[in-house]
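Memo to structure team: turn this sequence into structure tokens by end of day. - J.P.
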Amino acid sequence: MPVKGYDSVNLPSGLYKKVKTVIKNRNELGYRSITEFVAESVRHRLVEIGETAP
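Reply from structure team:
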């Protein structure tokens, strides 16, 4: 069950594992969680396709 104010999505296992590895091994990127990484990635893509302001 998602945390209040959050919804959930499914990722392919391989993609999830890759993101988890990046977060673990690349501390300099500053991500604290997979959720943080995915949320930022989605925000960037929305900007890219013109659906939100930066």
